[in-house]
């Protein structure tokens, strides 16, 4: 299939006074070949996705499986060692939490940042949120942030130099509705989204983390050197 390139100028809207509005014009993107897929099964979909530079997959799913299951299936199928996994979702469920735990304890993911909506956090404060802390806060690899966000995004960097971006209509737990998403290997798009999501995590994190040993020692050295 052939996709006609569209000149799009992404705009980041300032929805919170703690962030500055940024209007950018990214570099001209190379035209990508497109593959159009329709799937009902997460594992079968993961098996058929062949991520290569310059290939974009547009996928329609019927909502009969959890979108989070596809993320786990894709990473495990490719045996990727993910340096940093960032997910922004309106909502999720216990199955999604267990799936993310599998990726951490299975040594597939070294660092996980999960951003959820304020609405979800407030309604699950006494139920799923404590469960997330219990299951995912392993070896200081997990951070949970809550913000006024409606983003549905999954991005990750692999140890072999891959930069994967998945975005679309589906939350992690999906629904019984028709959903669509795009998945591609795109370093520039990854870095653009990573900066935005990291700003949110740094501002709205919920887990206080101690200063790591290396950083702490650097601080001590600066003091002893009079800096």
List the main descriptive attributes of the protein structure presented here.
227 residues; 7 helices; alpha/beta; disordered N terminus; 33% helix; 10 strands; single chain; eight-stranded mixed sheet; 25% strand; two-stranded antiparallel sheet
Radius of gyration: 19 Å
Q: Strand tally, please?
A: 10
Which structural category do the helix and sheet elements fall into?
alpha/beta
Give me the side-by-side strand order of the main sheet: 3-4-10-9-8-5-6-7
Say what oligomer this is. single chain
Total of DSSP H or I helical runs spanning 4+ residues: 7
Q: What is the average of the pLDDT values? A: 82
The portion of residues assigned to helices is: 25-40%
Any low-confidence stretches, pLDDT <50, length ≥5?
A: 1-15
Termini distance? Answer: 59 Å
Taken from the alpha-carbon principal axes, the silhouette is globular
Outline the biggest β-sheet. 8 strands, mixed
Q: Which H/E pattern describes the elements?
A: EEEHEHEHEHHEEEEHH
Strand content: 25-35%
Task: Describe the structure in brief.
With 227 residues, this protein is α/β, with parallel strands linked by helices. It contains seven helices and ten strands. It is globular, with a radius of gyration of 19 Å.
Write the layout of secondary structure elements.
Blueprint (H helix, E strand, L loop, with lengths): L10 E2 L9 E2 L9 E7 L2 H7 L6 E7 L5 H12 L3 E8 L4 H12 L6 E6 H6 L4 H9 L5 E6 L5 E6 L4 E6 L10 E7 L1 H18 L8 H12 L3
Parallel strand pairs: 3-4, 5-6, 6-7
Antiparallel strand pairs: 1-2, 4-10, 5-8, 8-9, 9-10
Helix pairs in contact: 1-2, 2-3, 3-5
């Amino acid at each position: 299939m052939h996709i006609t390139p569209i000149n799009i100028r992404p705009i980041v809207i300032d929805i919170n006074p703690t962030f500055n509005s940024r209007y950018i014009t990214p570099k001209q993107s190379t035209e990508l070949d497109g593959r159009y897929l329709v799937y009902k099964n997460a594992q079968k979909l993961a098996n058929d996705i062949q991520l290569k530079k310059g290939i974009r997959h547009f996928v329609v799913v019927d909502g009969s499986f959890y979108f989070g299951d596809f993320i786990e299936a894709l990473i495990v199928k490719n045996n990727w060692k993910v340096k940093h996994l960032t997910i922004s979702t309106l909502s999720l469920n216990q199955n999604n939490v267990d799936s993310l735990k599998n990726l951490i304890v299975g040594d597939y993911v070294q660092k996980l940042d999960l951003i959820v909506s304020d609405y979800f956090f407030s309604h699950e404060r006494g139920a799923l949120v404590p469960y997330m802390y219990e299951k995912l806060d392993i070896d200081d690899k997990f951070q949970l942030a809550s913000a006024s966000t409606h983003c549905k995004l999954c991005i990750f960097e692999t140890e072999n130099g891959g930069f994967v971006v998945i975005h679309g209509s589906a939350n992690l737990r999906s629904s019984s509705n028709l959903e669509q998403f795009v998945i591609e290997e795109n370093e520039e798009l990854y870095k653009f989204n990573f900066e935005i999501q990291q700003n949110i995590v740094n501002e709205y994190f919920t887990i206080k983390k101690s200063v790591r040993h290396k950083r702490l020692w650097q601080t001590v050295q600066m003091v002893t050197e009079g800096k």
